[in-house]
Amino acid sequence: MKPIIAFCCLVLFCSSLRAQDTTAVQPPVDITPYASPRATLKTFLSAMDEVRKGRVESIGKAMAALDLSQINPLVRSEKGRDFTWMLLEVLKRKKVSPARVSRVWAKESYVLLKFRHGRIVLQKQADGRWLFSSGTLQALPAILDELVQQAGATTATGNLPWYIQFRSRIPESLKKTFLLLEYWQWLGVLIATIAGVFADKSSRLLLQWLMRRWLRKGLIDRRLRLDADWLRPLAMLVMAGVWWVGLNLLGLSDTALAFLLVPVKVLAALAGVWGGYRLIDVVCAYIAVYAAKTESRLDDALVPLLRKSLKVFATIVGLMFVAANLNINLAGLIAGLGLGGLAFALAAKDLVQNLFGSVSILLDQGFHVGDWVIIDDIEGTVEEIGLRSTRIRSFYNSLVILPNSRLITASIDNMGKRRYRRMK
């Protein structure tokens, strides 16, 4: 549990320093595709046309035509994608063409379309770009409902988000708002919660069956004392994934989505790292069974190193996932830490030295797990060779943890390599 606790502390630390990350230098933005109302409209339509043809990465170019500054940064990506499809549907229904828009516009805003429930407006920004205004984005759901009712259709067509197509089919009584959400959205949250719990239970039963089968066949070293519920965190990851997908399908407001989705993302990261640790233990235990059958003892030393290396990698991936979903720029954060960055560099120096020490042990093969060694004033049997340290069990039954950086220059007397023994 110690690595998980450390991971949680790092998540809280990154979240607390998120405000300091706003000072990071932003790269210059090319305003040419958005230099006028006509250019912005043309860029948006061409980008969405590429997305419909399968080039999904072009949706970022379309989202850049929207003023998302008023959307919560934690859910800006999810809401931005929904707004792009809604705006495209409105423009398609009104058959808007960039050729009908003036090339040059002297005013600060350009009204593209007018509706009873709002307007489609392009607003000039401080940096010279023309973007679809934040007021336009807020009015898009009502505008789309108006167009659907005028067409006399029961559902919206095209590549609209699922919740918009579903919302056009439900009765008006379920569209009333209660505590930021409509009635049908509350019902959807309840269904998503039940589905997540069901997915957790079913995944847990499946993983328990797999663990019992592996233990029964002897594929896992029983000395690790793994039980059938060892992979429980992976079931939690499945539950978080179901909640994540379910909340994104309901079209919640940015406030409600941030309130509900951010904890789910953190839970997914925590369960993913924790489940990764457990899965790494199972895989390495499986490898250790075959390593014990070989004559070489090098693979016996590599298994603990592989286990720890994979856990470090899983932790880094988890932190990067949390940072990306909390809108944290890690490069800017580390650069802005000042003295903390210096301390990090000094700590990294010791880490690199220990890493080189472990590599030198494996390359030189001066000793292996189980050897009786004398290193300076330390004598005992090698129990484990790790990334940072080597554990030696002394003849007083104490455990000595020796940093691998010492092994680079230390004198090592391997008593297990003797060709004969002298008896006195």
- Gyration radius over CA: 30 Å
Helix coverage percent: 40-55%
Low-confidence runs = 12-27
Number of strands: 10
Sheet of most strands: 5 strands, antiparallel
Strand order across the largest sheet: 9-8-7-6-10
Give the count of structural domains: 3
What coarse outline follows from CA principal-axis ratios? elongated
Structural class: alpha+beta
Average of the residue pLDDT scores: 76
Output the number of helix runs.
12
How far apart the termini lie comes to 49 Å
What pattern of helices and strands is seen along the backbone?
HHHHEEEHHEEHHHHHHEEEEE
| Strand residue percentage | 5-15%
Please provide a written account of the structure.
There is one protein chain. With about 425 residues, this protein is of the alpha+beta class. It has helices at about 1-15, 35-50, 60-65, 75-95, 135-150, 160-165, 185-215, 230-250, 255-290, 300-325, 330-335, 340-365; strands spanning about 110-115, 120-125, 130, 175-180, 180, 370-375, 380-385, 390-395, 400-405, 410-415. It has twelve helices and ten strands. The strands form three sheets. A five-stranded antiparallel beta sheet has the order 9-8-7-6-10. β7 (about 380-385) and β8 (about 390-395) form a beta hairpin. α1 (about 1-15) packs antiparallel against α9, α1 (about 1-15) packs parallel to α10 and α4 crosses α5. Mean pLDDT is about 75; it is low at about 10-25.
